[in-house]
Batch of 2 targets.
Target 1
Amino acid sequence: MSGERPKTFLEFIEEKPNLKYFFTGGKGGVGKTIAAAGIAYYFASQGKKTLLASLNPVHSLSSIFEQELWGGEIKKVEGAEHLYAVEVEIDDIVARYKQQLSERLRWFLKWADIPVKADDFIEIAATNPAFEESAMFDKMIDIILEQRANFDVIVFDCAAVANAVRLLGLNKIYNLWLERMIKSRQEALSLRAKLSFRKDKVMEEIKKDPLMADLLNLRRRMDEARNFLNNPETTAFFFVTIPLALPISVVKRFIEMVKAFEIPIGGVFVNMVIPEEAMKVEKSEYMINKYKEQQHYMEIIKREMWPLVRAVIPLFPTEIVGIDMVAKVADAIVSWKPS
Ligand SMILES: Nc1ncnc2c1ncn2[C@@H]1O[C@H](COP(=O)(O)OP(=O)(O)OP(=O)(O)O)[C@@H](O)[C@H]1O
Ligand SMILES: [Mg+2]
């Protein structure tokens, strides 16, 4: 993989003028949120109306921007023109999902004459971790379908990369599952029509079948979602890592996973890299060792994923808090040149 000169973030986006949906993922604490904020800030500063959406159950946009962005509503980010943000509230979505599922399940059990209480099923389904993820995935699709006409760019800050990839990968699994469900639902309904003496009544019932309507509606949404989620001209998934063994191996593993799910890869951001200039005046053995350790892992990154690197973001002297700091991150992302 090494040798080839990487395309910078700026070159990458200039080559793809229709890019609209950005995702960041990576191991916990590596800088997914600051990278998403930096990307969003950059586009907003270019006059593009930009939405930064946090899909992470543990939000941090409010603390990064030092303003109240929670509550699940899209809010204008004060102090940054064209920039909006939303911290998606997972609890509401899970509750709503549960409610919807229980209505459908009750209806289905009654329809199929199955004499059991739906509540137990719903509890089991809702405690499955995939339930939360699929609720989040649905919300992401909602945001895209509802907001794509209102925004030029939408940047999603995802939870840990496993979640993010599953979140996007669900699309494919969802689709397979849907096809099966629709088919078996059609079979069940036509069988019922065949067996009934009152065909007209059954046909009426079929037309009103809420389960079928749900499935068809879901399929329509998924088809629409696939049009852009798997499209490398509109969508790019960025991995964030730091120069350390574990985050690098996480990124390598997930690059493979993402490929299998046909999710378009934007590239890799290497974050928290101690700048060489800082080392010219640095005397402490501790910092010198840290720097050497990072340089060792930078060599590994160069060897194993260099063509995918789109930016190296320096370790700043303080944490990233406030618009001015986010602007510096954005600047680091777009001004990076490979050496
Ligand atoms: N380049 C940097 N220089 C200095 N501090 C940084 C840098 N990148 C990130 N930080 C700080 O590190 C912490 C983690 O960053 P961030 O919240 O973006 O990570 P994350 O991957 O989103 O974490 P989580 O997995 O918890 O969502 C924050 O306090 C942030 O301010
Ligand atoms: Mg985060």
Target 2
Amino acid sequence: MHFDIAIVGAGMAGASLAAELGTDMSILLLEAESQPGYHATGRSAAFWHETYGGPDVQPLSKASLAWLSNPPAELGVDSFLAPRGAITLCRSGERDRLDDFAASFAENGPNFEWLDRTGLDLHCPGLKPDWTLGLREPDCADIDVAGVHQAYLRLAARHKVALRCNAALLSAQRLGNGWRLATRNGDYSAGILVNAAGAWADEVATLAGVRPIGITLFRRTIVQLRFDRPIPRTLPLTIDVNGQFYFKSDGADGVWLSPHDETPSPPTDAAPEELDVAIAIDRLEHVVDWQVRQVTHKWAGLRSFAPDRLPVYGFDIDVPGFFWFAGQGGFGIQTAPAAAKIGASLLMGKSADPMVERVDAGRYAPGRFT
Ligand SMILES: Cc1cc2nc3c(=O)[nH]c(=O)nc-3n(C[C@H](O)[C@H](O)[C@H](O)COP(=O)(O)OP(=O)(O)OC[C@H]3O[C@@H](n4cnc5c(N)ncnc54)[C@H](O)[C@@H]3O)c2cc1C
């Protein structure tokens, strides 16, 4: 069973790349779990927030917006986005921090709107008195993450990509111009091996005899809460300028809340810790006067970061035929369409797709770590 390209990992990264490549090449998509999307992709907070990840991630998020809001007609979906809006909040006395945050994006101006306390009250009722200033990003949106992931898998299937589940890569041996691959679901060979294994990216590199980049994993927790009152469904994504919490409406009467935790972890099936749930609720109680009545759901996932916290797209510079598509951090859903276009053009040796022609793809090349 020989393929032009074998992609390891069928989360958002691997699925989107497979869908972009599938028309031109024979593609094998290997997934260790019984179905794609079990790890980071299935555990996100499901938002598109232009400034999330910082100014060097913003070009990818921005370039992805058109695809997410107006997907290709063949998918038969009007949009994967629904309006949400976001507010980055600060306390009185922290104005400098919010100014610095806004200034860091000055070059590529997102749509910002300053809110005083009266403006904050309109969007987020019940704020405690010391929260006095906010920077609103009206363009922030909820993403239908499962919809996007399934759409990419559907496109991949249409393009005859061979998806194999329960097919963890066990070994990868460089032979001639390609790779011999042993998986739990049989043996294959491929010309190019793509590492889209999320939290396992460094492990997959090691399996293939490639020097790991130093991808670190951080657990992030989300709790779904109900309160003594219904929370407006229009509640924006509300983020602390100091990175201590974010919360947004859960689409019903409650919220999704994260303590913005970054607990180092080995690659694993992450689960929420009671302490992080307690910290999340404690932090929220310093922000709003809503009384927590019930934790209705909680989950955790791993976010994977390269040493500079930017994604890694491109061929390894030491081992031929090994391609990195890793380090998607906390932004791998909202950047997926642009990332997949970049990855596909690099793999096919083609010029950049118009969607990403303004993105400096070299910024994300693995060679920056040598
Ligand atoms: C709590 C949380 C909230 C988040 N919120 C957002 C958000 O609001 N917006 C946003 O854009 N991003 C968000 N993210 C980040 C986003 O979820 C990730 O960046 C994205 O899902 C990464 O996709 P991936 O395909 O790289 O990883 P994954 O989805 O983890 O997929 C990697 C796959 O590789 C497979 N694999 C691993 N090893 C092997 C092997 N040896 N053989 C075969 N398969 C293998 C795994 O089983 C897995 O399915 C969030 C993440 C978390 C944890």
